Amino acid sequence: MRVSFKALLHKYNTGECTPEEKAIIESWYHQLELPGLEELTDEQLVEIEQLRPSLPVKQRTRWPWISVAAAVAVLVTAGGYFLYHSMNTQKHQPIALMQDDALPGSNKAVLTLANGQRIMLEDAQKGALAQQGSIVIEKKADGELNYISGAELHEDDAPLINTVSTPRGGQHHLVLADGTQVWLNAASSITYPVTFNSQERKVEITGEGYFEVAQRDGQPFRVVSKGQKIDVLGTHFNVNAYPDEPVTKTTLLQGAVRVTADGGESAVLKPGQQAVLDNLQQIKVRFIDPEVAIDWKEGDFVFKNETLPDIMRKVSRWYDVDVDDGHYNHSKLTFSGEVSRSRNLSVVLKMLEATAGVKFTVKNNHITIADQ
C-alpha cells in the first residue's frame, strides 16, 4: 500500500514514524527547494496547516511554515516522493556494508592505450602513466586523468586512439589534450585521439558523459553517440546514450549545440533544452531543469516524475546489481525526490519503499521487486 506524505505527516505528529520515515520528513523539511503558493487553494492550505509536524522550533524557523505546507501539497499530488541526505556526515566518507546490501560506486576505470595495453586507473599510482607520441598521460592526486601536450603533431600524422571505460559501479573524470573536461558515468566509455591535429575534434561515447568543451576557433568539437552526433564550439552539455535506454538524451547547460540524428533530422539547442532522440530517429526538444540531467556528476540521484524501470536502470548501473522487475518492468508508477549516490543501496531502496506499495529484496547482488 502506498504511503502518502499526508499519512507520514500524521504518523510524525503521533510519534508512530519508523526511523526511516522520520528521516524522510525531517531531511525533506531541511533541504527541499520550496515552491510558491499560487497553485494551492485556500481549502488545501487550511487542510495542510492542520497536518503541521511538531518539528523542533530551531528547525522550524529556517523556513516559513506556509511554504513548507505548499510544498507538501504539490508533492502529494505528484506521486511517490522521497529525499534523504545524511545531515551530519560527508557524502564520501567510508560506509559500512550490511548483509544483503551493496556499496555505492566509486572512481574506477580502465584506460586502453593505442597499442592495446590496459591500465586499471584505480590501482595506478599518481604521476605519469604512459606516453603516447608526444603526449604524456598523467594521473593526478585526485584520480583525474590528464593529457599533457608536448610537441605539436602534423596533420598527416596517424592519430593515436585511447579509450577510457568505466564498469558498472564506476565513474571517472579526464581532461583531453585540448583542455576539454569529460566526466563519465557508470558503464560508459569514451574513445578519442590523444591529440587533435585535424580540422575537427571528434570523440565517441557510449553510456553517459558530461562535457565542458574547450573553445578552439576553427576546430569544432564533435561527439558521436548512439544514433546521433553533436557539434559544438565551446559549451557544457550532457549526453545520455546507454544501449539499454529507450531514447538518447542531450541536455545543454551552456553555449549552443546542434544534435543531428543518423537519419538526418537535426535540432539546435539553447541552454536549458534537452533533445530526445527516439528509436524512429525523431528528435523532440523540450525545456527541463538541467541540474536533473547532471545529478550523477554532482553525486546525487534526482528524480522528477520518473518511472520505477527508469530509476532501477540507474540503480543497477551505479551499484553493480541486477534487477528483476517482475510485473513492474512496464510500471507507470512515478517517483520524485533526491538521495545521495554516496548512500548504500539499502538506503535508496528504503526511500522508494516508503513512497509506494513495493518491496525490494536484495540477495547475491540481485534485486527482486514485489508488492508490499
Automatic annotation (TrEMBL):
<dbReference type="InterPro" id="IPR006860">
    <property type="entry name" value="FecR"/>
</dbReference>
<feature type="domain" description="Protein FecR C-terminal">
    <location>
        <begin position="300"/>
        <end position="369"/>
    </location>
</feature>
<feature type="domain" description="FecR protein">
    <location>
        <begin position="163"/>
        <end position="258"/>
    </location>
</feature>
<dbReference type="Pfam" id="PF04773">
    <property type="entry name" value="FecR"/>
</dbReference>
<protein>
    <submittedName>
        <fullName>FecR family protein</fullName>
    </submittedName>
</protein>
<dbReference type="Pfam" id="PF16344">
    <property type="entry name" value="FecR_C"/>
</dbReference>
<keyword id="KW-0472">Membrane</keyword>
<dbReference type="GO" id="GO:0016989">
    <property type="term" value="F:sigma factor antagonist activity"/>
</dbReference>
<feature type="transmembrane region" description="Helical">
    <location>
        <begin position="63"/>
        <end position="84"/>
    </location>
</feature>
<dbReference type="InterPro" id="IPR012373">
    <property type="entry name" value="Ferrdict_sens_TM"/>
</dbReference>
<keyword id="KW-0812">Transmembrane</keyword>
<dbReference type="InterPro" id="IPR032508">
    <property type="entry name" value="FecR_C"/>
</dbReference>
<keyword id="KW-1133">Transmembrane helix</keyword>
